[in-house]
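User: Hello! My lab partner asked me to get a predicted holo structure for this protein. The small molecule is adenosine-5'-diphosphate, SMILES included with the sequence. Please write out the structure tokens.
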Amino acid sequence: MNTSELQKIKQRYNIVGNCDGLNRALDVALQVAPTDLSVLIVGESGVGKEIIPRVIHDNSPRRREKYFAINCGSIPEGTIDSELFGHEKGSFTGAIGESEGYFGVANKGTIFLDEVGELPLATQARLLRVLETGEYIRVGGQKIMKTDVRIVAATNVNMRKAISEGRFREDLYYRLNTIPIQMPALRDRGNDIVLLFRLFAMQIAEKYRLPKITLTEDAKAIMLKYKWPGNVRQLKNITEQMSVLNEGREIDADTLRRFIPQDPESTQLAPISPSGSHSYESEREILYKILYELRGNVSDLRRDMNSLRKQLDEARQLNGAGGFRSLIDAPAASTLPERSNRSAATPVYAQQAPLQAEEAEAEEIREPETLNLNDLGRQMVEKALERNGGNRKKAAQELGISDRTLYRRIKQYGLDKA
Ligand SMILES: Nc1ncnc2c1ncn2[C@@H]1O[C@H](COP(=O)(O)OP(=O)(O)O)[C@@H](O)[C@H]1O
Ligand SMILES: [Mg+2]
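Assistant: Hello! Below are the structure tokens for the protein in complex with adenosine-5'-diphosphate.
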């Protein structure tokens, strides 16, 4: 294993860790990159499988050609064949024009099929054919098309079980699995856990311009023993949550326990995120929660300001007009809505920010907009749809959520009836 080359790769892709399992995975990726062999990356959810196909493509002779990452689990069964293999004009309701499909567009390049275990059986048959012969037929078409695509696939499901239950074709499994790459679970990476924590603590500190959080020795010991069912993604989420929601910058054992799920077998993320399968989604959920809390802080501030103002008024009446005037005559430099925007980026300080009389005046003039989780979610979806001319696929991509999640939200917010 060439350690300096591995080091370079880690730097280039911001990969942190030095355990044998990770090094082996990267090493195999580099070795197979120059070939056209199919690679199957296996590992639990959140271990970092998506890094590998990028490394393979960028270090292969195909590096200047197209690279597509396709999440097989997020494309509806009814459209997946046409998305992958294209369709002819009028081949199904809504097929206005013809489409080339990923296998056509990616000719000479690489396709990463994430969550390949989710592919419907009919699609598996088409995929096997294109892998074996380089040939495929568009949906509703007759003509045999040719393509030259390298496939890297990933799965977190037990493929043997899927095969024995008839959900996955054995022949396709062997074809995809020419070179297996195993990504180790986070719990098996020893001190890499602490290194990854430091990376994420630093990233979030920069992103939100907060002081970086650190771990006490006790907290470190808990981290090393914890099972991390959601692996690196979970560690990243928890580090973000602690950075943003915890006021103290040193995380001790008790604080850490509050953020780590009580049940070590649980795959739920600690106290905030209910779903947690998509990193973007849980990140957004954290932000929702922060905004929601900020709204509470703003209401508290408003209440405090009102009572302060009352006291000032009373004092003024007692002392004659103008007694405390100088205190509240400062120019109104900032307005409250602006302030709450700023606070969203630095939430920990939001609670500590000293009350300025000038803001009390601004507050009088302008009612801050009510912020509500549902409104915020609906607005984000609406805006994304607007920006993309109603194209749901593009809107979902921009929001970093799957098509299915977007459809669900559109229904939930009643946007389909608008
Ligand atoms: N070794 C690593 N160094 C830095 N970040 C990592 C590492 N492994 C995973 N990540 C991060 O963890 C998150 C989950 O990784 P991802 O590749 O999406 O997992 P998977 O596809 O296996 O579910 C991503 O944000 C990724 O950047
Ligand atoms: Mg993934």
